[in-house]
Write a structure and sequence with these properties.
With about 230 residues, this protein is mainly alpha-helical. It folds into two domains: about 1-120, no CATH class; about 135-230, Orthogonal Bundle (Arc Repressor Mutant, subunit A). It has eleven helices and five strands; from the N terminus they run E-E-E-E-H-E-H-H-H-H-H-H-H-H-H-H. The protein has helices at about 45-55, 75-85, 95-115, 120, 135-140, 145-155, 160-170, 175-190, 195-200, 210-220, 225-230, and strands at about 1-5, 10, 15-20, 25-30, 70. The chain has a three-stranded antiparallel beta sheet, with no helix packed on it. A two-stranded antiparallel ribbon has the order 3-5. This is AraC family transcriptional regulator. InterPro entries: AraC_XylS_family_regulators, ExsA-like_N, Homeodomain-like_sf, HTH_AraC. Keywords: DNA-binding, Transcription, Transcription regulation.
Length: about 230
């Protein structure tokens, strides 16, 4: 699994265990290997469940944390926990809520046992504050998400975001995003010699056909034509 963020890229393989803090903008690409299908176990720790957990369990650590992706070393508690979840995937019905709640509480207890500073991430329910819109967009334009989400992460309502965006860039968010993503794609094709199928998702397009259409409309030639001309 390849995880691309604004300033870093991570790669994870079989047996790796990781935690995503809230509001982490990431592009996640899953690669099957050696003919095997990609499989993972994912548990979402919702804000509601975390708040209920901390009403019963006092917060132990409130130190500042960079809220980066955390990767855990192999640990018997984590390994046994995930192993215990595997049989549930054979159920033909949904896992009972009481059992789900117990497993989530078990997961949180394990995380707090193996990482003494984890509360600084799990118990942080603060909302994003108003930040510099132009700086944020220049760093994060390649992430494909609704305009409302960009607004939320910059501490703005949708209306205020669009108003501030027009002031900063003299155009609409969608036009600017498309232009920036195509420029990045053009660079990846012409300078890095990467194939269209390798870059369309990383540069913010939902599918290859949409990317190819937008690229040719912008530049007058297709991504494949550009790549072949550089070979």
């Amino acid at each position: 699994m390849k995880i691309i963020q604004a300033d870093s890229t991570f790669s994870f393989g079989p047996g790796d265990m990781l935690l995503f803090p809230r509001n982490q903008l990431s592009t996640i690409i899953k690669y099957p290997k050696d003919g095997r299908s990609y499989k993972s176990v994912v548990m979402t720790l919702t804000e509601d469940r975390l708040k209920r957990f901390y009403t019963k369990n006092p917060i132990k650590c409130t130190e500042q944390n960079k809220h980066r992706i955390l990767s855990f070393e192999k640990h018997p508690l984590l390994e046994s926990f995930f192993t215990s979840l595997l049989p549930y995937f054979d159920l033909e019905t949904e896992l009972p809520e009481k059992l789900s709640a117990l497993k989530i509480e078990e997961a949180l207890t394990i995380l707090r046992t193996i990482d003494q500073s984890i509360d600084s991430i799990l118990s942080d329910f603060s909302k994003p504050g108003k930040i510099n819109l132009a700086d944020f967009m220049e760093k994060n334009f390649m992430f494909n998400m609704p305009i409302e989400k960009f607004g939320y992460l910059t501490g703005r309502s949708l209306t205020t975001f669009k108003k501030d965006f027009k002031t900063a860039f003299q155009t609409t968010p969608q036009k600017w995003l498309t232009q920036k993503r195509l420029e990045l794609a053009h660079y990846q094709l012409s300078e890095k010699k990467r194939r269209p199928v390798e870059i369309y998702y990383e540069t913010g397009f939902e599918n290859l056909s949409h990317f190819s259409y937008a690229f040719k409309k912008q530049y007058g030639y297709s991504p494949t034509e550009l790549l072949n001309s550089k070979n």
